[in-house]
Amino acid sequence: MSETKGIMIVGVGGQGTLLASRILGHVLMRRGYDVKMSEVHGMSQRGGSVVTYVKFGEKVYSPLVDLGEADYILAFERLEAARWLSYLKEGGTLILNDRRINPMPVITGAMEYPSDIVEKISAKGARIISGDALSLAIEAGSAKAVNVVMIGILSVLSDFPENEWQEAIAACVKPKFLELNKKAFSLGREFALKILKS
């Protein structure tokens, strides 16, 4: 692959975007790609906007993904999907956890949470795979496993075999949480396969 590809993982602090990027990075490095990653936090570590850039190819010079360059965006929350949508390239895919997490200005009453976010995103013509990753994470055993559910969905869209993703999860997750995360990954994969067949 001579072409450099870019993936963005966007959410709010505390959602596990960094673990998701580590798992992804592990798969890509084992494949022999040059991989660059960068994480940017918003105003607060927990609850503020967080974006992780992952770029890979034969030779990558910068981890940052520019406007219109992302092949995939994994959005852990609706408002973050809308905030970063302009970075998705034409023909790119948005993987959306269709959940609402109120940012501080909404909590304090300074602003209202925008309505019809998903409809507005759809109107821009992006390819969207949208689902309730939180419910799947809870089914797997923990609400904190949303990140690995999202990785499971991404894995179905990738060219890499399932066992390589499973190995990456085993390498990046603490042993006591491994079975839980494997289940979350499998549920994400099952959901994506069902969506793509329909």
Features:
single chain; alpha/beta; Pyruvate-ferredoxin Oxidoreductase, domain 3; 6 strands
Report on the architecture of this protein.
This protein has a single domain, classed as Pyruvate-ferredoxin oxidoreductase, PFOR, domain III (Pyruvate-ferredoxin Oxidoreductase, domain 3, 3-Layer(aba) Sandwich), CATH 3.40.920.10. The chain contains 8 helices and 6 strands, in the order E-H-E-E-E-H-E-H-H-E-H-H-H-H. The chain has helices spanning 17-30, 78-84, 104-107, 117-123, 133-140, 146-157, 162-172, 178-197; strands at residues 5-12, 34-41, 49-57, 70-75, 88-97, 127-131. The chain is globular, with a radius of gyration of 16 Å.
